[in-house]
């Protein structure tokens, strides 16, 4: 499966409108920060827009809505720290749907300490200030 | 029988199969990252609590543990006010021999946020007392309340004076930077610590800064003068003057110990006095009330040093209102009407005048400073320094002889100089000890003076004996005062240094001459018309003779008569001398000055300085540059006529003529002739004697450089000849050891740094640690870095590097935070004076954040406190990022901006506070639209930016009214 692409499979079901799916993290366990944001794009019959729904993702990458979604187009975004945002459009037509999203890993963040100036001769700071300790 | 055997076998089997145990003794010392002991911390081994620490953070206990096992030791501290990061360490029980496990645990702590403060991150911190105090920090300890009660108010009692209800443990986070005191108005007019530090140009310890905040009600008071009286001091010194925000900063060389007095004065306000008996905080608040105070100071002056007189009775309108304190001060709250005439009287004990009375016109500012004099003239307190020898190529052969001369010299000086009532010996050991305490040595003190140091209260002058070995050896005694100025000197040629009898004889002659030129001090006993009687006479050793002249010091009223000042008011000439007094004629007295009992008199140099017009300047020739020679003694016909000043200058007598000799230790004696009519200035060049140097080092094979030139490799067994005076000596190039640099002063002709005097090179623990790190041994590298002692110049660097290893390699952020916290607790780093360590603040913030991440699942509240503290640390370091070196700047900015935003994000997810959500979204946007766009991006930063986009979308979705929850 080529990176950078996401694949969508839609499975028709006889249930009420709902969405489930899986995020493919290439074997990485997902942390508690992993979320999926579902934003209905169409207005309701009363003309009002419905707010988005944020749901948590399980460590194995699966997710499922627990409440009914409005019928119509919606934007589904995978918001997982450590991976680029992945998104797709889904048309909800009253049935349950299932989607898979492929996550593209970002370069790993590492906690890298900033280094002190080892010697006075290291010179000046970015702002041009002398880094030598003050003479007291 | 079979049954019995079976049972016996089973018992034996169970015994031999039981794992072997040994006694493990635990020696635990638990401290916060600020160095304070942590009491009541639980000590846990393999999940079992074995005891808790005492008040001094110690735990001693033992446990039977199985051999050949690895065990986990934890130290945990619970507190109502703080979260302490637990300390963990593993240890091996290696053999059956009883063993000791020594643990120096550092527990990083952060305050628990109050519900209010968690919601208003942008607002000011909350003080321990719960009141909002701008710019003040809010860390407290469990025993804060007890410590708070130890400060109390001295007279007068009206003003409310408190130390700010602030932490006893100085926080390294969030303190108000004292830049306003330093940059906007200067730290202090007379900074005690500064003077001490300046004494020899060496700072021995980080200075201690105390911020003073003076208010009246809730309004800050500008222009309040704050004076300081330290433990053991006999006078108050000027501390600082408050700025428009009512604040100023006093800088101490080190944290004052013992009682500290702060006296705050301002026109129109009652004087405030704060006596701090222990535990001086970083911030002190003084509350002043409107009103008038009469400030009385009863003092005495002796050889340039002013002392407060304690227990002097103060009478106002004839009624005793109190006695002066040890600074000679009494503040009397005046409740009368303005412009009222107020009679004030002072009565000291054993000082003259026995009673002093004056009238004051009541006004906003009433200060009376009265000088008293002791009835008997004070003896000049003098310390005899060790003999300094110059010349003599082979000093080792002479060492026995010189020891003998030194001994004879001591005896003779005691007999001929200290035998007189005019002088009192101060043992050299006492002076050396005190000099060491203030970070200098006795030779530097003698060279540069000690007027602004603690030594001034101990001695008035030093005698420096010099021996210049040559064809005609010269013995010289110099008397140097607290300004570092030679005030008397005498020299004698001796036939040979083998002639030991000559030493005593010559010292006797020199003592007489010193008597003739020493500026003795006494007091006026009475005035009779144009004559006064002074308490200096013939028999006390002062050698007063008719014709001697004195300067007279007393009070002179200003033109409008509202203020009196103390100073030189006239001159006297001795007419006749009696055993213990002398009668003097008054030559002149300044207008509005009154001469009376108790006025100070100082003997002027017996040579008439007004007659001097010709000037010489003494230089030393070295290379193409000329350097002034100071403290060179100039003798005319073998009588001392003065010594050169810092610019090598001396004004000579106009009328004198004869043989001119200039003597300075380390130089060849200069001979010349002074003619009677010589009025022109002349430059004299003196030649330095050469010096001999031998150098060895431990370990040897160090490259030796003198003044930047390589002269060999240790051991330098063959003596090398260098010019005397200052040389720069450098040793370097021994693998695993640090280089050594020093500046030596080779006045003494020969210096042998060999044998026990060899230069010991310090192991370069940081370089060793770096090698260990490169070989994949981070724990061992930390062990080495831990060996760098706090007084070592590499200490802060080593702590930072320990933090880096914990953070980068061992994934132990709590220990990293503790290590970085030790760096940022250093005064110069805390206040961002030492810009090299700005990254330590950054890393401390990141390590705190990472600690929060580790705690998030187990203890969300502790995690929240760590996120909040991380945010405070990172917010505080923001303005200083420009001081990060250019090559590290992009990483530092991304680190700080990303973790600030993420700390906010975490705080929001923990609290679900809508206000924090708004700030979180703003924080991510600021990062993505600010530094993420403008600062160069590397791989780390790419990850930060990618994640920031994810977090921004999460937070924005929530802000946009998303249903569902971010909570798990």
Alpha-carbon distance between the termini of chain A?
Answer: 64 Å
- Rg of chain A, Cα atoms, Å: 23 Å
Shape of chain A: elongated
Sheet with most strands of chain B? 6 strands, mixed
CATH level 1 name of the domain at 19-107 in chain A: Mainly Beta
Hey, roughly how much beta strand do the residues of chain A contain? 25-35%
Shape of chain B: globular
Rg calculated over all Cα atoms of chain B: 35 Å
Q: How many DSSP-defined strands of chain B? A: 57
Task: List unreliable stretches of 5+ residues of chain B.
Answer: 114-205, 964-968
How much of the sequence lies in strands of chain B comes to: 25-35%
DSSP helical segment count of chain A: 0
Query: End-to-end span of chain B in angstroms?
Result: 68 Å
* Secondary structural class of chain B: alpha+beta
| CATH architecture descriptor name of the domain at 19-107 in chain A | Sandwich
- Helix content range of the residues of chain B, please? 25-40%
Order of helices and strands of chain A: EEEEEEE
Q: Report the major sheet of chain A.
A: 4 strands, antiparallel
CATH superfamily of the domain at 19-107 in chain A: Carboxypeptidase-like, regulatory domain
